[in-house]
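Field reference: sequence -> structure
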Amino acid sequence: MRASVTARPRSRTVRLVAWAGAILLVALMLALAACGGDTTSVPTVGAPSHTLTLPLPTTTTVPTPATNPESRRYMTMLKETYDAANAVSRAMEERGASSTDPDAARLLGLRARAQAITARKAMVDRDANLADAATLQMRKLLMQAQIPAQSPVLEIVQKALASSEDIPAPSDSPEEAMAILETVIDDLSALVPAAGATDS
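Structure field:
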């Protein structure tokens, strides 16, 4: 009975020591976080070390790394085009429109423009595989768009189709593909509300 009585104070002492250690560790972490200028190096496998500044931001948003200004320009154009496509898609959904609805042609044309912009951005970023795939998808979307299209969207789509008829794979003829993609982006800019001839 004495043994069990004497064991309890010892277990309490162990727990108190553990709690004290945990509190000390938390205090140390908070002290490091308070030093806004302190940095620590985070090594990565197969890449140079990255510097992590403390304290860490409270949000979960991870800032995108700085990119080529031209690549950022295409990213802005891509966002504008996708926003326009999403607006058309929502309007079609609200009224229960089918894939044969004339607005389906506008939606497909906007998606084709997005693929053309993606191809150009990929070329800037030196991603030949993505550029080739996006160019191929652009042509498929344009051919699909002309089926339900009515004037004036039909003329816009047909113009882009004619412009891209002989487009080569960007990986094979980058200069020629670049010029044609820029033309297609401009041809389809009329589908973007209040955009007109988009800077391309």
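Note: The chain has two domains: 2-53, 69-191.
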